Amino acid sequence: MATSSGFKVLYEHDGVFIHTNPERSEEQDSLTSGSLRILDRDGDIVLEYKPMEDVDHSAMLCAAKEFSSVFEWGQRRQGQSQATGDMPPRQVEHQLSCETEWDMVHTVQFRKKPSNNGGGAPPNPAPTPEKSKGSRLFFSLSDLASVRVREEGWSYLVFTLRDRNMGVELPALHFHQGGSEGFLDCLRKYVLLTGSTADTSLLQVSPHSRAMSQSFENLLDDATFGLITRFTQDPVTATLGGFSKVTNYLFDAFRGPDTELLQQRPVGEVADPLNEVIPGLDINQQEEPGFEVITRIDLGVRPAVRRREPVGAEEWNTNMDPEGRMRNVSHLKQTIFKGGLCHSTSEERRSLTRRKTDEYFRMKLQWKSVSEEQEKRNSRLRDHRSLIDKDVNRTDRTNTFYEGADSPGLILLHDVLMTYCMYDFDLGYVQGMSDLLSPILYVMENEVDAFWCFVCFMDQMHQNFEEQMQGMKTQLIQLSTLLRLLDLSFWNYLGAQDSGHLYFCFRWLLIRFKRELSYPDVLRLWEVMWTGLPCQNFHLLVCCAILDSEKHKIMEEQYGFNEILKHINELPMKLDIGAILKKAEAICLQLKSCKDLPDSVVEILGFNSTKTESSSQSEDMERMDREDSPEPSTPSDHQQDLVSDYSPSGSNRHLRDAARDVYKLAYIS
Amino acid sequence: MAYAYLFKYIIIGDTGVGKSCLLLQFTDKRFQPVHDLTIGVEFGARMITIDGKQIKLQIWDTAGQESFRSITRSYYRGAAGALLVYDITRRDTFNHLTTWLEDARQHSNSNMVIMLIGNKSDLESRREVKKEEGEAFAREHGLIFMETSAKTASNVEEAFINTAKEIYEKIQEGVFDINNEANGIKIGPQHAATNSTLSGSQGGQQAGGGCC
Predict the structure, then answer these.
(1) Does A515 touch chain B (CB under 8 A)?
(2) Major location, coarse class (chain B) (predicted)?
């Protein structure tokens, strides 16, 4: 066969066969004889196998394999074959741009002969797909990954090509008439074949050094090719994008707790993290053209999954509108998925309420029945009582509920706090607890319900009030950790002003912003926080949000230790709770989507668990739910607001119900 | 307002002895029987005149409960004066003075002037601690002593101002290093230009609201 202009034959050998059905069907196994050539096409060395124009063989082949997929394998990237979805765009582009007869240089074709062409094929077809006859191979040697040499009385070779995703193995070429050695010798002139120690029959192709273009092409393997292509298309974006990534990696590698670590370690070890980081760069061009996305195939720790309480009748009903239509269906499904449905009866809930009520009054009777004589000999009880007496008179006295010398609110506040001493005598009463109880009692208007709500709230807050205030110290450290991540310069500034311990946030944390906000805003904030959403320790992000708004003033005015404390102390009633919550949630989302979050922060915000509900408090709360409060059909705007803002999980259900009760009272009166 | 010196004070003592009421009486000249208990620390300021010099008092009022002690200690730092308050109607608040004093001495600078205050002197009928006991304790520990009533304002001005005078004298004697803010003293912008027309020890007191 004559060579077309533009390429020359470097090697040619006839009588090379392809077994079209080597395994499946004995009788239909057919041999296609053909000619194997190595061609030089403008410096690109290609291998071509072309069947002889043997009509009988082709026809037999077609008849036997009409519906077989054997002929369909390979990378069919011609127009008539579907480009698969995961194919990198650049290859498609490349393909479309080549419309010469050599458009198969980067493709592999192994196609059955079209049956309608079977009769009179032209003797010398150009090797375009449309005109190709029989089973043929055609590929550039630069695409060759390995050659497997087998003996079966005769030699046969199996070529494996480099592929974008995986090696493509071509059908074996059988040298029934000998000549495989000569072919391999010739092949060695153009590619470097090295034997594999693990598999002696395998000759692997090493990157070629003969032609500059070729070796360059070999460099363009999957990872870098896209980068270079992109570089030529959009050098600025590609370069800056690449630099930014390196910057991020170096920044990450050198900042944070690692810094001290690096400094302490011997020089020899210092390079290790970098070596680990940089070769690990895995560039993925497919997800976001224009910028590389760093993919880590680390699947991470399998998260802990939490179940929740079953959905009770009450919760079910709250998802029904007054006409009986179900609302929030997807949410309801989610909650049922998480816990199933509760089948407690009204009677069961009534009996639970009775039990909790009994329990409360039993504990109340305990302190009520202590005589003066007994108390004289019980200094702890005496101290608690005297402190509670004092503090009840100093808690929210401007609120109408606690106003006046003998307001019933004051008595309830006192009694619930005293009963809590009986419930948890180790803790007893600590200043700040009256602030935590006051809003709950105000909303519940019932000492039993308020007490059990308070118990649940205290479960969360308990550590803050313990002897050495360990909970407070922990929270301040956690807050510092978050602040450092969010705003290193402000964090440094505070440290330089001897305020790095963040004691100026003490009151915020101890009584959850109770003194910093108006009463309705406190209720709002607590409702929000009791959902346990959007992350653990959300109140710390609320602190960060407030500080984020104040830092400019603090830093611009160069406030010192005293001024910072004074400034923060004077914030009450100047804060916009809506804006703060918005910012706090935004920070949460920002951190959640950050891939390189320090472990400490992940831990603090609970991103490593699926816990989204405040768990401990919800149980008793759920049980404390009442079954007897039908939702008013026409609530006022304010009440509607109050009710709809409670999520149906967690202790706030209680407040929600309470809010409904408050409404009922208003409705009746 | 321009001042010659700024003195930082701290008020300490058991919970409920009237620390916040003393501060409010001093800064706002009023008694508020109903006010929220102190969580953490609260702040007040007032301008006074000593020896013709405008002196700003910056006063930190701390929470009294034992549990908060580990945190409130940090506020001792950098205070020039301390008011150590007990309640004359509650002996236990007097009994705890030693602990308070140890704590204060340990966590403040050694030159801090401490004024011992027996508050609620208006409640004579419920008195549990004699005035002589307070005087004796003060003498024993080298403190200044006064009985006050935040309710009637008796001796409240004097308590704050006498403490300031003591600090001022220490400055004159060169005991305090006024250039070190950790001593709780700051030189104000007005220091050099002392106005002689304002001379007289306590004459020119002015209620200075919340300005810093």
Answers:
(1) yes
(2) cytoplasm
Residue type, A117: N
CA distances, B104 to each of B13, B75, B108, B112, B167 (Å) = 10, 10, 6, 9, 17
DSSP conformation class of A324:
S
Could you list the beta-strand ranges (E) of A178-330.
192-195, 202-206, 283-284, 293-294
Q: Which residues have a Cβ under 8 Å from the Cβ of A46 and sit 6 or more positions away?
A: A7, A38, A39, A40, A105, A138, A139, A140, A141
Helix then strand then coil, % of chain B, to nearest 5: 35, 25, 40
pLDDT of residue A645: 33
Closest residue by Cα to residue B106 from B1, B12, B176: B12
The answer to whether B13 and B85 have CB atoms below 8 angstroms apart is yes
* Distance in angstroms (rounded) separating the CA atoms of residues B208 and B56: 9
Element (H, E) at A98: none
Chain B residues with at least one Cβ partner in A under 8 Å: 8, 15-16, 34-37, 39-43, 58, 60, 63, 65, 67-68, 70-71, 74-75, 77-78, 181, 210, 212
Place of tokens 């059988």: A174
User: What is the pLDDT at residue A289?
Assistant: 52
List beta partners, residue B86.
B118
Q: How many Å apart are CA A615 and CA A309, to the nearest integer?
A: 9
Question: pLDDT > 70: what percent of chain B?
Answer: 89
Indicate whether this complex's ipTM tops 0.90: no
CB B2 within 8 A of CB B190: yes
CB B65 to CB A469 under 8 A? no
Structure tokens at A479: 């807050």
Helices and strands (H, E) in chain A, number of each type = 27, 12
Q: What predicted TM-score, i.e. pTM, was given to this entire model? A: 0.58
A565 vs B contacts (CB less than 8 Å): 41, 43, 60
**Interhelix angle for A433-444 vs A519-530, to 10°?**
90
Among B85, B116, B68, which Cα is nearest to B21's? B85
Q: What's the CA gap between A540 and A543, in Å, rounded?
A: 5
Say if residues B178 and B4 touch (Cβ distance below 8 Å).
no
Alpha carbon distance B116, A566 (integer Å): 25
Question: Hunting for tokens 């590929």 — which residue is that?
Answer: A139
Higher pLDDT, A103 or A321: A321
- CB of A506 within 8 Å of a chain B CB? The answer is yes
Confidence grade of residue A172 (pLDDT, cut at 50, 70, 90): confident
Query: Residue A491, Cα to own-chain centre: how many angstroms?
Result: 28
Measure A397 CA to nearest chain B CA, in Å. Answer: 7
Class of domain B3-189: alpha beta
**Strands, E assignment, A246-340:** 283-284, 293-294
B41 and A566 Cβ atoms separated by less than 8 Å:
no
Task: Using the predicted structure, report yes or no on whether residue A141 has a pLDDT greater than 60.
Answer: yes
Query: Alpha-carbon distance A508 to A516, whole Å?
Result: 7
Q: Which of B24, B35, B36, B42 to mutate to test the interface with A (most CBs of A within 10 A)?
A: B36
Provide the β-strand partners of residue A206. Answer: A192
| CA A546 – CA A221 distance, rounded (Å) | 50
For residue B105, give Cα distances in angstroms to A239, A392, B68, B135: 62, 32, 17, 19
- Which residues does chain B have within 8 Å of residue A566's beta carbon, measured at their own beta carbons? 43, 212
What contacts B145, CB < 8 A, 6 or more positions away?
B115, B116, B117, B118, B134, B135, B137, B138, B139
Round the average pLDDT of chain A to a whole number and report it.
72
